[in-house]
Amino acid sequence: MSTIKGEDITETIRAALQYIAVYHAPDYIRRLSDAYRREESPAARDAIGQILQSARMAALGNRPVCQDTGMVTVFARLGQSATISGNRTLEQCINDGVRLAYLDAGNPLRASMVADPIFGRRNTRDNTPAVTHVESCLGDTLELMVAAKGGGSENKARYTMLNPAAPVADWVVETVAGLGAGWCPPGVISVGVGGSAEKAMLLAKRALMDEIDMHELIERGPDTAEEELRIELYHRINDLGIGAQGLGGLTTVVDVKVSSYPTHAASKPVALMPQCAANRHAKVTLTGAGPVYLDPPDLSLWPEIDGGAAEGTLRRVNVDTLTKAEMADWQPGETLLLSGHILTGRDAAHRRISEILARGEALPFSLRGRVIYYVGPVDPVGSEVVGPAGPTTSTRMDGYTQMMLDQGLLSMIGKAERGSDTVERIAKAGATYLIAVGGAAVLVSRAIHGARMVAFEDLGMEAVREFEVRDMPVTVAVDSSGQSVHRLGPARWRREPTASGA
Ligand SMILES: O=C(O)C[C@H](O)C(=O)O
Questions:
Q1: In what residue span(s) does the Fe-S hydro-lyase tartrate dehydratase alpha-type catalytic domain sit (predicted)?
Q2: Same fold yes or no, 151-277 and 311-489
Q3: What DSSP designation does 278 have?
Q4: Distance between terminal CA atoms of the chain?
Q5: Looking at residues 223-244, what average pLDDT do you find?
Q6: What is the rounded CA–CA span in Å between residue 350 and residue 145?
C-alpha cells in the first residue's frame, strides 16, 4: 500500500511539463542528428539544421523548443494498492500542475487551449484542461506519461475502418502521402490497429511516447510481424520523399510505431497519429516518496550546427519598401533575409478580420503593401521582445487568403504547403508565400528585434502584432508565378519503394 500526495502529483506534472517544453527528447535529437548528416537535399538539410540549432538554443536558454507548447495529454496508470491523498481528483491534481507549468514566471509557456470549441473558442489562458486517460493496474505506484502535443501534428491524426482483409500498410502510406507538411516532419508516425474506433486512436497516441528505436530494430532485425510492418512503413514513408518540412528529402520519419489490440471479427479500425519535430514526452513514476524530477539531459548530445548557407550570398529584402515587381524576381526555394516590419496574425485574427469586413467596417490596421506572419508567439521574459515564435500551418489560412489579397497584402509567411486554389490566387495577385522552419522557434525569434500590439489583444497569442525583424531567414515557397516548393521538392526526392506492400 502507498499514499501518494495530491500536491506531489501536481508538482511532478509541473516539473515534467517545464522539462519537456525545453529539452527535446535525447532519442529524437540523436536520430535527427543522424538524419542531418545523411540528408542530401540541401533545403531539407538546412531545415533539419535549423531545428537542431534551435533545440540547442532552447536547452541552453531554458526556453520552449517550439512556440506551440502543446496540448497536454497524460496517460496515467494507477496501482490498485495506491491511494491519492487530499481532496482533489487525479484530474484536478494534473490540471493544477498544467496551470503552474504554463504560467511559470521564469519560463512561461504558451496557452493554446480554447474552451467552447464549437462557438466562442475562448482561450483558457493557462492551457488547461489536460486530456487525461486513467488506467488501473496492479501495484502501488502512479505512473504518468506526459506529453505536450503540438496542434499542427494533432490536426493530421487520421482514422479509418478497413475491411478485415485490407492491408494496413497501403492505407498508412497513402494517408501519409496526402498529409502535407503541416505535421512538421521529420517526426514519428504511430499506427494503432484494433479494439474499437477510440481504442485505435488511443493505441496510436500512447505508442508515440515510446522511445525511438527504429535504428536498433533495423540493426537487430524484426522478431515479430508487427516489427516487420514497422520497418516496411519506415522505408515506404521515407521513400515518399516528403522530407523535412515537406521540402523534399530523404528523412520524413525517424521512427514508425505500430500497436495493436484484439478487435471484432467484422472490424479493422486503424488510427494514424503523427508526432511533429517538437517531440515532447516524459515518463515518471510516483511511489509516495515525494514529487519526481527528471535529470537534465547531457547537452553534448545537442550538436552544434554551422550557420548553413553563406549569408553574404543570400538575397536581403527590405519589407518596408517591398513591391510586386521586386517579388517577381524571387525564385522558388530561394532563401531570403527579411528586415523591416511585418504584421502577425493567425486563425482567430483572420476570422475577426473577415467578420469586420463582412459588417462593412474598416479594419483597425491596413494590410496594403504588408507582409503577414502566421504566428502565435510565446510571451517574452527578461530582455526578450518576444518568446519563441515559429510559424503555424498556413493551410488553415487558405480560406481567408483571397480576402487578405483583396486588402492589398503582398506576402505571407507560415509553414507547410498551400492548397492548389490558394497557390493560383497568390500567382494571380502577383503575391508570394514564404516559409520559416516549423520547430525552429527560438532561432526565428532571434531575428525579431521589436514587437508591438496592433489589434485584437483579447485574442492572446492570436492577437495582431507588428514585429520588427532583422535578417529573418525565410524560403520562397510559392513564387509570384505560382511555382511551389512543396510540389517540386517531394517530386524530386521521391524514390521507388524499397519494401513491398503488406
Ligand atoms: O499553434 C502553432 O503555433 C503551430 C501549430 O502547432 C501548427 O503546427 O500549425
A1: 11-284
A2: no
A3: S
A4: 47
A5: 98
A6: 35
Assign 3-class secondary structure to 126-166: CCCCCEEEEEEECCCCEEEEEEEECHHHHCCCEEEECCCCC
Dist. CA 451–CA 472, nearest whole Å: 14
Q: In this structure, which CATH number among 3.30.1540.20, 3.30.420.10, 3.20.20.140, 3.20.130.10 belongs to the domain 311-489?
A: 3.20.130.10
pTM for the model: 0.94
Nearest to 450, CA basis, from 362, 381, 360, 385 = 385
Q: Note the pLDDT tens digit of each residue in 315-332.
A: 999 999 999 999 999 999
What is the Å distance from ligand 1's center to 150 Cα?
A: 6
Could you give the CA distance from residue 252 to residue 235 in angstroms, rounded to a whole number? 10
pLDDT band at 311 (very low <50, low <70, confident <90, very high): low
CA distance 305 to 231: 29
**Continuous segment of H or E residues that includes residue 489:** helix 485-493
Supply the pLDDT for residue 430.
Answer: 98
Over residues 255-274, the pLDDT tens digits come to: 999 999 999 999 999 999 99
Decide: 393 in ligand 1 pocket, CB within 6 A: yes
| pLDDT tens per residue across span 384-434 | 999 999 999 999 999 999 999 999 999 999 999 999 999 999 999 999 999
Ligand 1 within 6 A of CB of 108: no
Residue identified by cell 489562458 is 125
Count other Cβ atoms within 10 Å, centred on residue 316: 11
Instruction: Tell me the β-bridge partners of 250.
Output: none
Q: Which of 51, 66, 67, 68 to mutate to test the pocket of ligand 1 (most atoms within 8 A of CB)?
A: 68
Q: Is 411 in the pocket of ligand 1 (CB under 6 A)?
A: no
pLDDT digits (tens, 9 = 90+) for 49-70: 999 999 999 999 999 999 999 9
- C-beta of 414 in contact with ligand 1 (< 6 A): no
> What pLDDT is stored for residue 67 in this prediction?
97
pLDDT digits (tens, 9 = 90+) for 74-106: 999 999 999 999 999 999 999 999 999 999 999
Question: Domain locations in the chain?
Answer: 1-148+297-304, 151-277, 311-489
For 178-229, list the strands marked E by DSSP.
Answer: 187-195
Candidates 395, 132, 173; CA nearest to 272 is 173
Q: Give domain 151-277's CATH number out of 3.30.1330, 1.10.405, 1.25.40, 3.30.420.
A: 3.30.1330
Q: What are phi and psi of 408, to 5 degrees?
A: 100, 10
Q: Please tell me the predicted confidence (pLDDT) of residue 500.
A: 44
